[in-house]
Design a protein that fits this description.
Helix content: over 70%
Strand content: under 5%
Radius of gyration: 22 Å
Oligomer: single chain
Structural class: mainly alpha
Length: about 200
């Protein structure tokens, strides 16, 4: 086991916790509850981004090959999804929290489907969960478990990772579309259909 696992593990735990919290965000049925969970998610996301940036900076400020340098190298795969989180997810979570706060007059105020659809948007949950998944190879290498699999595991691991990310993305998109359809105004049952209106 490598010593820099001690530095990588807290970063991964924060991202995993944020991904788990984002997964349950659309299930919040009350505005105050949604606002509270969005606040927690925003806090965890900012902590995750801070730790992800702090490790490379710590590696640059120290001379020689240190633990921070090895930990920062393990964050390379997670850099792109973390950048998407910083550019897109943070802004969406802030808007979601503000929207839920505007409706959270009482504890029992229901969260409208439009707000829950915004909480289920793929750009909220997907980048957080992909960032957490992208840290797994670094953790496996740092723990020494990669020695048991050998070099031939790289190809299948990449394939499984890509398929997993695709499945997560499709799931988020389907849930978002389902809630967005519920948020659309329903056509009145008494209004005539276009076909009937043409015959009148």
């Amino acid at each position: 086991m490598q010593n820099h696992l001690v530095l990588l593990l807290p970063v991964a735990v924060v991202w995993w916790a944020a991904g788990y919290l984002a997964e349950g965000l659309p299930r919040m049925t009350h505005a105050r509850e949604l606002r509270r969970h969005a606040g927690w998610l925003l806090g965890l996301t900012l902590v995750g981004l801070g730790l992800t940036v702090a490790l490379p900076i710590a590696g640059l400020t120290t001379a020689g090959a240190t633990l921070a340098d090895r930990a920062a190298a393990g964050l390379a795969l997670a850099a792109l999804p973390a950048l998407v989180v910083a550019l897109c997810t943070v802004r969406r979570v802030r808007r979601l929290r503000a929207g839920a706060g505007a409706l959270a007059a009482t504890a029992r105020t229901p969260a409208p489907h439009g707000l829950r659809a915004a909480a289920a948007h793929p750009l909220i949950g997907l980048p957080l969960q992909v960032t957490g998944l992208a840290l797994l190879p670094a953790l496996i290498t740092a723990s020494g478990a990669a020695e048991f699999f050998g070099p031939g595991i790289t190809g299948p691991a990449v394939t499984i990772g890509v398929l997993g990310v695709g499945a997560i993305g499709v799931r988020h998109a389907l849930r978002h579309n389902r809630l967005a359809e519920r948020a659309m105004p329903q056509r009145s049952a008494t209004s005539p259909s276009p076909a009937r209106a043409l015959h009148v």
